[in-house]
């Protein structure tokens, strides 16, 4: 069993409650637009970090974090990419990767919109954790945590805070 903290689109900002919310996590996963290397380093110092770079990330972040991550967590095959879309509206580049790799979980960021959708067609759980940073059109900062046990995903919890600073 592993407890996972998932976030995206920090754009260099780490909400003060991230570390409390992720305190019981075994790993943190970041779905891109980290913002700078220092943000990734702060997360990686706290818990093991798996991350992908996003479209706003510079060369320092891109040199460490790939465009796509494919790995197993317990017995669950996980794919993370920044710009991936969601069930019924996947980005064109994501579809062949999903068809080839058949992940049980597909994670993307970019839209700043929190989504948790089961995809019947590809038999996977899609999660977009929304945006954990202050840059963008979103009004609510979000990130999530959940448990992976074997191939099962359970106990998903959402953190929400008003972007203006009123939690």
Task: Give a verbal description of the structure.
The protein has 167 residues and is α/β, with parallel strands linked by helices. The protein has a single domain, classed as 4-Layer Sandwich (Purple Acid Phosphatase, chain A, domain 2). It has four helices and ten strands, in the order βαβαβαββαβββββ. The chain has a five-stranded mixed beta sheet, with helices on one face. Strands 4-5-6-8-7 form a five-stranded mixed beta sheet, with helices on one face. The longest helix is centred in the N-terminal third of the chain and has 10 residues, at 37-46. The N and C termini lie far apart (30 Å).
Topology:
Elements: E1 2-7, H1 18-21, E2 27-30, H2 37-46, E3 49-51, H3 59-62, E4 68-73, E5 76-81, H4 94-101, E6 105-107, E7 114-119, E8 124-129, E9 140-149, E10 152-162
Parallel strand pairs: 1-2, 2-3, 5-6, 6-8
Antiparallel strand pairs: 1-9, 4-5, 7-8, 9-10
CATH-defined architecture: 4-Layer Sandwich
Task: Please compute the radius of gyration using only Cα atoms.
Answer: 15 Å
Order of helices and strands: EHEHEHEEHEEEEE
Q: Helical element count?
A: 4
Biggest sheet details: 5 strands, mixed
Q: Tally the beta strands.
A: 10
Q: Termini separation (Å)?
A: 30 Å
Total domain modules = 1
């Amino acid at each position: 069993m592993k407890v996972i903290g998932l976030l995206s689109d920090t754009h260099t900002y780490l909400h003060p409650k991230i570390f409390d919310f992720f305190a019981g996590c075994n790993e943190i996963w970041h779905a891109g637009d980290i913002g700078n290397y220092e943000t990734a380093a702060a997360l990686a110092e706290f818990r093991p970090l798996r991350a992908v770079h996003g479209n706003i990330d510079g060369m320092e972040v891109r040199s460490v974090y790939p465009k796509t991550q494919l790995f197993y967590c317990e017995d669950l095959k996980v794919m993370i990419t920044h710009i991936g879309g969601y069930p019924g509206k996947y980005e064109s580049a994501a579809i062949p990767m999903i068809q080839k790799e058949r992940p049980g979980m597909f994670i993307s960021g970019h839209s700043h919109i929190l989504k948790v959708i089961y995809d019947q067609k590809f038999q996977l759980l899609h999660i977009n954790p929304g945006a954990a940073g202050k840059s963008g059109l979103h009004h609510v900062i979000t990130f999530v945590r959940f448990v992976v046990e074997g191939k099962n995903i359970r106990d998903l919890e959402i953190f929400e805070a008003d972007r203006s600073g009123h939690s």
